[in-house]
Specification:
Elements lengths: L2 H4 L3 H4 L4 H19 L6 H33 L3 H4 L13 H15 L18 H30 L2 H4 L2 H21 L7 H6 L5 H9 L1 H11 L3 H17 L4 H11 L8
Length: 269
């Protein structure tokens, strides 16, 4: 921490970086391209949708990590300013592979919105258990809010005449909302290494929390492996679909959006 960072106000400390603005611009550009293709499921249209979803997914990862960092800043950790976390610059995060490469690979392989892990919070300078829980909850809550906004846009605009003329774009929105929900559900599991465990960890006996933290990486790998097993995979995605249906998104547009996203695949939708 530095004296300058300690005196910085929350609003002034938040400065979107050029890198983040490039991600936003890419999301808008590919979104406009997907919009322009209307209902044509051609290979160029699918590539445009792929770019839109991928860029928007990276944008949501930035917002996820920013949520952690901003609440930490407001709770007393001024060090996040010096680390560059409040600029939404993914290049400032501690582990670009874990935070971006692996989550991107997982949506390419199986349409799973895998949460990343990037910002290091100085927990020792933050008082109160509730603040620690809120810091952990901020990331997945950003995914939930993003999903709600996307689902509301889809529900209110995709079904009207104008929306029906731009089906490629809206199917991408549906699939993107689905990815946000998968990320939120996974990250809210009370498993060491995930934000769900960070929410409950302040209320656990210190010995239990330390032992859990020591196996956090292994627990996360076991979870990922389990997701590839048929029964676990079906149960997980079934639960996610229950949530998306509650938001007004049924399986059909999500699965169609997923098929369009995988532009390299010729499997039927």
């Amino acid at each position: 921490m530095t004296g300058t960072a300690r005196g910085t106000r929350g609003g002034a400390a938040v400065r979107p970086s050029p890198v983040f603005l490039v991600i936003v611009a890419a999301t808008v550009l590919f979104g406009l391209m997907a919009w322009r293709y209307g209902n044509d499921p051609s290979r160029p249209a699918r590539i445009a949708l792929f770019g839109f979803v991928l860029a928007a997914w990276m944008l949501s990862l930035c917002l996820h990590e920013f949520g952690h960092a901003y609440i930490a800043y407001r709770s007393g950790d001024r060090g996040v300013v010096a680390k560059g976390y409040l600029t939404l610059n993914p290049l400032k995060y501690s582990d670009a592979v874990l935070s971006f490469l692996i989550p991107v690979v997982f949506i390419l392989l199986g349409g799973i919105g895998l949460p990343g892990g990037a910002v290091w919070i100085d927990r020792h300078v933050i008082p109160g258990r509730i603040r620690h829980s809120l810091i952990s909850a901020a990331g997945p809550l950003s995914n939930v809010l993003f999903a709600i906004v996307l689902a509301a846009l889809y529900k209110n605009f995709a079904a009207n005449q104008d929306g029906q003329e731009h089906g490629i774009f809206w199917l991408g929105v549906a699939f993107l909302a689905f990815l946000q929900i998968t990320a939120a559900v996974l990250n809210l599991l009370p498993i060491p290494g995930l934000d769900g465990f960070g929410i409950v960890e302040p209320y656990l006996p210190r010995r239990w929390a330390d032992q859990a933290a020591s196996i956090g990486g292994y627990a996360f790998l076991i979870l990922i492996a389990l997701l590839w097993l048929g029964p676990v995979n079906e149960a997980f995605f079934g639960f996610v679909y229950h949530i998306t249906e509650a938001l007004g998104l049924n399986r059909t547009p999500i699965q169609a959006g997923h098929w369009l996203f995988e532009w390299w695949s010729d499997r039927p939708a």
